[in-house]
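Sample pair:
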Amino acid sequence: MSDTIPAPAPLVTPETAPFWEATAQGKLLLKRCSDCGTYNWYPRTICPECSSLNTEWTEASGRGEVYSFTYNTRGDGPYKEGGYVLAYVQLDEGPRVMTNIVDCDPDDINIGSRVEVVFHDTGEGNALYRFTLA
């Protein structure tokens, strides 16, 4: 399986703009609470753990493991051709992110497989984060 699945541009809001700008540079950012140390996903100003407003952008390692996945043979919209892996990846920093697993045979993916981030350019000044087997 290759990285031929579509890379549609995401909806960028003022709150998430730093995240999406970093993807164009090949960086995966997470919000981290300076008060309780929790890494947060989806990026937001308020820490969901302790309600602190003292959060900052932190570069993530880009590594994690497959928490759950499915191989889709049919899709909708830009994914209507199907043939892609949709997964939750548990990042080494703690949060789980929904993503695609690319550049590998779906039969080689298992729960607990180690993965690392790759970026697919959207052509709109940002990139989609996806993962490949490490």
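The longest strand covers residues 63-72.
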